[in-house]
Write a structure and sequence with these properties.
Elements: H1 7-29, H2 35-57, H3 61-67, H4 69-93, H5 96-103, H6 106-118, H7 124-140, H8 152-176, H9 183-207, H10 216-221, H11 223-248, H12 250-255, H13 259-270, H14 277-294, E1 297-298, E2 301-302, H15 305-316
Antiparallel strand pairs: 1-2
Helix pairs in contact: 1-5, 1-11, 1-13, 2-4, 2-9, 2-11, 3-9, 4-8, 4-9, 5-7, 5-8, 5-13, 6-7, 6-8, 7-14, 9-11
């Protein structure tokens, strides 16, 4: 049986590995689905499942939704709308491995946001880690390559994905700041509250000629992939991630996003698609930056995720 102290670690590893598969499965869908409508369909399917789970296992979830509707709506739009739409507009123009490594820069976005919003200045080592992470993202995106100017659409896609990660950082902060909601309730209620506004945005974009609506036949032909995305890297991964964040905190939780690029590059390698030197070098820089940040000072102490877990395990045996 899994020890309680290890449960959030396993949950975060499972969540971030599942998100790696999201980039690989989602990329082909973007050839027939606009990212805005892709997000609407994804969270329609996920929201139905999450709503049923909240009804079965939550504690008066709909009363909590009414009491916190405004805040849950904004957080859902940040984490499910802004993040998903921008990341998938970026993915449509770039590569799955690029999007995955860009996601791995989120721990450092979290640190900088805490500095801006909460006045919690990162340590010098944390800032060094942030700079290394951004260098790793730029390396994966081939920003330093002389030929990059000829691939402006890919660079634009990477910038869109990088901007989109801000939405998930805000969503993660919200999860840690609402302890009265269980991980299931937070995951479900933010999705349910935000979905009508996502649909409205998609309808307006379609009327303006900016986002073509998908045909029913197209959705039916892609239903297996859509169901996979809705269940595994959306519902189960988000619940696991919110559970881990609730136990370990927003900063420690986002450290595990390092597994997203690792899983994408690993699956590519298994499929016989060897990663480029830039992708390997950039992923290595991000991983090294995460290691630096994990041991950097935070609030006068060291952020030591694994040593803290070891101490919890030792205490439980006494």
């Amino acid at each position: 049986m899994l020890h309680p102290a290890l449960a959030p670690v396993v949950a975060l590893l499972c969540a971030t590995t599942a998100w790696g598969s999201l980039f690989l499965v989602g990329k082909p869908l973007l050839s027939v689905l606009d990212p805005l409508w892709f997000t609407v369909v994804r969270y329609l399917l996920a929201g139905l499942l999450l709503g049923a789970l909240a009804q079965l296992f939550g504690s008066t979830p709909w009363r909590k939704l009414r009491a916190r509707l405004g805040r849950l709506t904004l957080l859902g739009l940040a984490g499910y709308g802004f993040f998903s739409v921008l990341v998938f507009y970026g993915l449509a123009r770039s590569l799955p491995s690029h999007g995955a490594v860009i996601m791995a820069s989120m721990p450092f976005t979290t640190l900088l946001l805490r500095w801006a919003l909460d006045g919690q200045r990162p340590s010098a080592m944390s800032l060094v880690g942030a700079a290394m992470a951004l260098a790793g993202v730029a390396t994966v995106a081939n920003v330093f390559s002389p030929a990059q100017a000829a691939d402006a659409p890919m660079l634009l896609g990477d910038l869109l994905s990088l901007a989109g990660t801000l939405g998930w950082v805000l969503y993660t902060r919200g999860a840690a700041a609402m302890p009265e909601l269980s991980p299931l309730e937070y995951t479900a209620l933010t999705a349910v509250a935000a979905w009508p506004w996502m649909l409205l945005a998609a309808l307006v974009a379609t009327l303006l000629g900016l986002a073509p609506a998908p045909a029913i036949g197209v959705l039916a032909s892609r239903l297996p992939a859509l169901l996979y995305i809705a269940v595994l890297p959306t519902v189960l991964a988000a619940m696991a991630f919110n559970f881990g964040v609730r136990r370990l905190g927003a900063v420690a939780g986002t450290l595990f996003i390092n597994m997203v690029p690792v899983s994408v590059l690993g699956v590519h390698a298994l499929l016989g698609q060897a990663p480029s030197a830039a992708e390997l070098g950039g992923a290595g820089l991000v991983a090294l930056a995460l290691a630096v940040n994990a041991w950097a000072g935070r609030d006068g102490r060291r952020t030591r995720v694994l040593p803290d877990l070891a101490e919890r395990l030792a205490d439980s045996r006494r």
